Amino acid sequence: MNFDADPQDEAFRTEVRRFIAALSPEIVRGKPLGYTHSRPEREAWIRALNAQGWLVPHWSRAWGGRDWTAMRRHILHDETCAAGCPEVDRIATDLVGPIIQAFGSAAQQRRYLPGILSGTEFWCQGFSEPQAGSDLSLVGTVARREGERYIVSGRKLWTTQAHLADLMFALVRVKIGNELQQGLSFLLVDMRAGGISTRPVLTLDGGHHVNEVLLEEVSVPRENLIGAEGQGWTYVRALLESERSSAAGIPHTKRDLRRLEEFASSELRHGRTMMDDPVFRAKLEQLRDELHALEFLHLRVLSATERGPRAEALGCVLKFRGAQAYQRVSELMLETLGERSIEYVPDSQRSADEAGVAAAYLFRRSATIAAGTTEIQKNMIAALALEL
Amino acid sequence: MRAAVHRYCADQCGFEARRDRTASRDGDAVAAQSRLHWQAFANMGWLGAALPPDVGGSGGSVLESAILFEELGRAIVREPLLPCIALAAQVIDKGGTAEQREKLLQPLVRGELLVALMHAEARAANGGRDSITAERCDATATYTLTGHKSVVPGGADVSLLLVSVPWPETPDLDGANGEARRNIFIVDAQADGVIRRDFPTLDGMRASEIVLRNVRVDESSLLGEWGQAGEALRYATEHAMLASCAEMVGAMDGLLWLTRDYLRQRRQYGVALSSLQALQHQLADLFAELELSRSMLYRGLSAFVGEEKATRSAAVAAAKTYIGRSGRRLGEAAIQLHGGMGMADEYKAGHYFKRLLTLAVLLGGLEPHQQ
Predict the structure, then answer these.
(1) Domain of A329, in residue numbers
(2) pLDDT tens digit string along B139-190?
(3) A346-375 residues touching B, CB cutoff 8 A
(4) CATH number for region B2-114
């Protein structure tokens, strides 16, 4: 493995910066902390990235993949995040897209992948349910087989961006006659189908990020099944790995560290700036070092040169420590602003970074819960790396 | 007293009511409800619990405040008791003349008058100097107040403001009792030049940003004697810090048991989460946070009623910092242990957490105190 500075990488970084600078300001205009880009803003950005061939470098070549090095992928994400570009639909590009390529039929690939590339179809992930959180074996959504269709009923919870999504990939349990299958199945569901209703679940920051999705006798064609009935877990395993590395949020933490430094340089406490307070400086340096380590861990995971269970455990370390660093930077922002952080500003009214500090802090408590809790990551490390 | 407060909070200030009022867009209905609660607080003697009998209080001390606020914390009561009762009322009691105490505190104890303190703060935009100043005009014997305060809890609910300003402007010039000289002016919240922006706070309550633009007051508006407000201000601030410590302890206590009960009923992988040792240990850590915080509160209370000034201030500041930090840690861990439920704004855990966060940064924040 070689992560030495490569002149080609630096040239690529410059190229990315030029590309962003050339885009219309509507797409990349710097947004304040905690700002959630609208769907049209995200669609425009997805189209621009795809036209440049940079949307899905990690996909297979047939669908636009580029065989990039880990460093290159990292640079792209780092730069777009630093510039405040909108988020692409990672649920589509990083989670369901690769699964459809690996396990979907040719017809499914032709039906679903172009919509991801053009940004016209957004996805949501229907895994968690009221009773099935960490333990997905408790999924109770039932897909009753009736001829060439499944009739799906159940309740999904904590579903990120379900209110924006056109399609859902769901874990369900197939029922044939009176028999409920043991294994889970992986089903693609059109969010506009009859019988689907979505209710917002507001989070601590007051924002609408997640939903409850009620499925009542939703009719889904059998051709929407990925792979074989009862084999869903096999496909999901691969997906969870890539979910872990994108959930680590390292480029975001890096960007926010710069914001934190700006706050700390202007906030006065006891007659001096926070930056001049040695206790605060020590906390900042500690976080910066953690982030350096995480960044290289991320490169190791992305480059996938290390193999085996122990290497898989690296992704778990990346996920939980990365999420903690992402929380940590917002904790330090909160400490820096002091009592001025307690104003609650609805996200539609946040014009300055300051106004989003408390909301960011609150919402990020979910970083160590969603996409596999810290406790689950530690269980996996114990099993995979420590062989316990 | 503890039992009475607990009973009223449980019956009248339940979580569902809090949640609905926080989410409500009907400001008038919420305000009417608040007035009813406030009148009930007055009738039960809470407003005068830590005030002497000559102004209608029950003669209690900071200990009565601690009992009251611990129960308020457990119930996450969303009325401005802390800024009005634990802080402003104490300023008036300690710093006011006999006449001012009678005129202001009696209606306050009866629930007819709400007061908040607007204390000058050092601001970067102001070259690090205090942000509120008073200028005297000898000819008319009036003062002109000018300045800005970004967070005044309770500011939206009160009819009088106590404006604390340094006097004279050189902060290192000490008064007779070793305190930096300060003056406090009693200002009508509706007076010309008082510009208020109310905003919701994280914990579902309200605070205000207040600008004073050439607000004219006469000599009778000065609280107590000229230049002597420093001691009253410090005493009241420490009283309020301890009350907020007690409220945090109450909230921590409520949140710990809520979390324990959730882990008992939540089942994953075929077992109750509470049976998993890793999670039991996390709960044990939270219990340690709670009981160390409670101990730190007791230490602060004991120093406040007994010891001399220097030790007292240090003990109170230490309690506030310690419990604030500990409360945030407990809150963060409790959300984590709840999983997705912890993130849902309609669930109680988050309301405890956000109240803890707010209390932690008010009245001296999370950073080490440097008094």
Answers:
(1) 248-384
(2) 999 999 999 998 999 999 999 999 999 865 544 444 444 456 789 999 999 9
(3) 358, 362, 365-366, 368-370, 373-375
(4) 1.10.540.10
